[in-house]
Amino acid sequence: PRRGEDIYDVAGDKSTVQKILTLEQQLEKNRNDFATLLELGKLYTLTSMGQQRITLLNKADELDQDHPDVLRNLAIAHVDAHYQYKTALQLMDRYVRLRPEDPFGHFYRGYLLLMEKQWEKAIKTLKEGLVREPANIYGLCKLARSYHARGERDDQSRAADILATLTKLAPDHLRVKWLKRTLQ
Description:
Helices cover about 75% and strands about 0% of the residues. Helix 4 (about 70-80) runs antiparallel to helix 5, helix 6 runs antiparallel to helix 7 and helix 7 packs antiparallel against helix 8. The longest helix is centred in the first third of the chain and has 17 residues, at about 15-30. It has about 180 residues and is an all-alpha fold. The protein is elongated, with a radius of gyration of 18 Å. The chain has ten helices and no strands.
């Protein structure tokens, strides 16, 4: 459910590379510079640059525990690098406690719960995100998937209702098209 500066864009590669090189030089001068560790960790996460991002973000977390940007990027890195949903979920639990009004936390936490097959918690968490941002395509898609996966009475019709809403909101969105195929 990333937005804006948190979305990788190949068109900005030259600028991104320059930022990374500059930050790496700064980090060589001061290995405990929180701001540099965080920014470089965010860029490494954005560009999926291997284990280094986790190492940098873990160091940043040691220096400033419970910094929301560290927790968010560290959770993303753990999933992207190793599919460590449980580790990411622990980080997102901390993130949501710190930033309960941020829909991203609820949506990403809901996704992690969905991946861990904790349907009830996923549904509850995704609904919390949708209270804050009702027309969020990512959140709605994950909620429909959670209902579909849970499979209790009326869950398929709930998923179909969400899909109908999504089709009105964004009929050509890739997530909506994928969800249509998944629910059929």
